[in-house]
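$ ./design --mode recover --in tokens.txt
reading tokens...
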């Protein structure tokens, strides 16, 4: 890389290929690890402290929202959480790309929001290049326990994703989706 070329952090934020063990990104990751370690050690009686830690860790943490420990993130600052959203314990939010979670979202235990992608070609993969695609969770979505949302997926408002589903492509608003891969099984249009 030349002096005027983008940093690995800039490449990551732009959705381009980057190398994750870059010193700047490693420092960002260490910061996230320390904040999540502190958050995960809190008790249920420490609501204000939990909120402060999540506000420091995440890009945005909406009013009246709650995330229960344990929580795991890559960087934290790429995650936005709307108002009145609840995430049960065990949320993994691999935020190499942006993860946008709307208002009034319900997230069951052990949900995984996975933005990282890796080259299929073995040479760049061996050289530790990776990229990511953003995830968007619309308002009033319910993700059942154990749901996995893959890179680049958007889930429309008022959609329900059944427990254990693997969401590999966008889901429209007002549907119920289940299975692996997740498929729409019911229309909820009012």
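writing sequence...
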């Amino acid at each position: 890389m030349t002096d005027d070329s983008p940093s690995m952090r800039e490449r990551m934020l732009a959705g381009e290929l980057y190398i994750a063990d870059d010193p700047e990104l490693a420092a960002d990751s260490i910061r996230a690890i320390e904040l999540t370690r502190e958050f995960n050690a809190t008790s249920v009686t420490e609501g204000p402290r939990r909120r402060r830690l999540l506000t420091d860790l995440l890009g945005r943490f909406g009013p009246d929202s709650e995330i229960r420990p344990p929580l795991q993130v890559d960087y934290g600052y790429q995650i936005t959480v709307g108002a009145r959203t609840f995430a049960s314990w065990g949320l993994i939010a691999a935020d190499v790309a942006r993860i946008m979670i709307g208002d009034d979202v319900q997230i069951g235990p052990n949900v995984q929001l996975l933005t990282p992608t890796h080259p299929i070609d073995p040479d760049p993969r061996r050289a530790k290049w990776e990229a990511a695609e953003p995830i968007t969770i619309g308002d009033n979505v319910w993700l059942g326990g154990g749901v996995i949302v893959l890179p680049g997926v958007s889930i429309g408002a008022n959609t329900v994703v059944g427990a254990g589903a693997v969401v590999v492509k966008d889901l429209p608003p007002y549907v119920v989706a289940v299975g692996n891969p997740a498929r729409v099984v019911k229309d909820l249009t009012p």
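exit 0
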